[in-house]
Design brief:
With 402 residues, this protein is mainly beta. The chain has helices at 4-23, 86-90, 288-292; strands at 43-44, 49-54, 60-65, 71-77, 100-108, 114-121, 127-133, 136-141, 144-149, 162-166, 179-182, 188-193, 212-217, 223-228, 233-238, 245-249, 258-261, 273-274, 278-279, 299-300, 307-312, 326-331, 344-351, 354-355, 360-364, 372-377, 383-387, 392-397. The strands form 7 sheets. Strands 1, 21, 22, 23, 24 and 25 form a 6-stranded antiparallel β-sheet that branches. A 4-stranded antiparallel β-sheet has the order 2-28-27-26, with no helix packed on it.
């Protein structure tokens, strides 16, 4: 007969051993030390070339293209996440604990690599997404949405920040990264805020304005919920043909991660249900009324793949025809780094503004060397990948359009 306490102790001991092995990786995110040796790089699919945009970074997580072709690289470390379950030991958060970060500006040269690399902003508290509207640069930190004056071409910001709105924070902040997206007219800003817990196990009072995409009025700072029930909406983008908002979401262990369009006022299930109305018995109290109206995601992904980056192709894309209309998604295998294929960038083809086929591997070979997070398309039609373990931003390009 198995004693439950002994079984739990054994699980924790095993998890500690695995976690110790994981922490013995060649380099830590945030150290600035590359894990890739000279000449090494991720592997791109046929017809694509991988090169380095920038190196020597400190845990790069998000990317943003400026109007003149400059690239902003958001480098961040987040708060310590409490160890509540053996799974937390198996998959500890990357990087050193403590809210830190900066934003680096890169000006690419003729070959696409960085010709100039400067720190635009420093001493930030776990920055996530950025967005430029006119001469206002917005930064979504773990606890607040900030605004800085910025003119295109500047390489350093010395002016103090203006707080636009507070964002949910606190000692239990399981998903601390705040993604950011501006509306097409620039009047509104959308902030993705993940849940503080796995499935609301610490009480739903701690989840106010979380597991949601918040809409912030740029003029007044007023905040309202745009969509809810999204456990961790960590990247949002506008689909270029329909101009609908799409996001990728990290789900619970019992559910598939997913890519979905986002409806204003929509509820997507967390924590009461998943894949639409499938109830999660762990959520307390149960809310069958909310589960019944939960929206099923448009495009389920594989379980535990932790999609962290989303980028739709752009009109000047250098990608081959099969990779032109659709979305690139960065994926990580959450629970076990030894599972081959878990760290990669895939492409989901679209037709008429909707997913239209299975995902296709585009960039692989990250395991034990790097980890893809944020993605963007640059002004020359190349795909940029923030690698927060390799402390590198990779550039993936194909032949130019003819």
């Amino acid at each position: 007969m198995h004693h439950p306490l002994r079984t739990t102790a054994a699980l924790v001991a095993a998890a500690l051993a695995v976690a110790a092995c994981d922490r013995a990786a060649p380099a830590k995110p945030g150290s600035g030390t590359p894990t890739w040796k000279q000449g090494e790089a991720p592997v791109a699919s046929a017809g694509l070339t991988v090169s380095k945009l920038a190196t020597g970074l400190m845990h790069p997580r998000a990317l943003y293209p400026l109007p003149n072709g400059d690239i902003l690289i958001v480098e961040a470390t987040g708060p310590a996440v409490p160890v509540l379950r053996p799974k937390d030991l198996l998959a500890p958060p990357a990087g050193p604990a403590g809210k830190g970060g900066r934003i680096t500006l890169v000006r690419p040269g003729a070959d696409g690599a960085a010709a100039q690399q400067t720190v635009l902003l420093d001493h930030l508290a776990a920055p996530g997404g950025v967005a430029l509207v006119g001469t206002d640069l917005y930064v979504a930190q773990a606890d607040a949405l900030l605004r800085y004056p910025y003119n295109t071409g500047d390489t350093r910001i010395t002016a103090p920040a203006t707080k636009v709105a507070d964002l949910p924070d606190g000692p239990l902040n399981r998903h601390w990264v705040r993604s950011l997206l501006a509306s097409e007219d620039g009047a509104r800003l959308y902030v993705g805020v993940g849940s503080a817990s796995d499935v609301g196990e610490n009480g739903m009072d701690l989840e106010k304005n979380r597991a949601a995409i918040l809409e912030v009025d740029r003029a007044t700072g007023a905040v309202r919920t745009f969509a809810s029930g999204l456990r961790d909406p960590n990247a949002m983008q506008w689909e270029p043909h329909t101009l609908a908002m799409w996001t990728v979401v990290n789900e619970r262990n019992v559910a598939l991660d997913y890519l979905t369009s986002v409806r204003q006022g929509g509820f997507y299930g967390w924590p009461y249900s998943y894949n639409g109305a499938t109830p999660d018995p762990r959520a307390m109290p149960q809310r069958p009324d909310l589960a019944a109206r939960a929206i099923a995601p448009d495009y389920p992904l594989a379980m535990h793949r932790a999609p962290l980056g989303l980028a739709f192709n752009n009109p000047v894309s250098t990608m081959p025809p099969a990779l032109r209309d659709g979305a690139f998604i960065g994926q990580q295998f959450r629970a076990d780094r030894s599972v081959a294929g878990g760290y990669k960038v895939v492409f989901v083809p679209f037709a008429d503004g909707k997913p239209a086929g299975p995902p296709v591997d585009v960039v692989t070979g990250f395991l034990d060397k790097g980890r893809p997070v944020g993605l963007i398309m640059d002004h020359r039609g190349a795909l940029l990948i923030a690698d927060d373990v390799g402390n590198t931003v990779w550039r993936v390009s194909g032949p130019p359009l003819k």
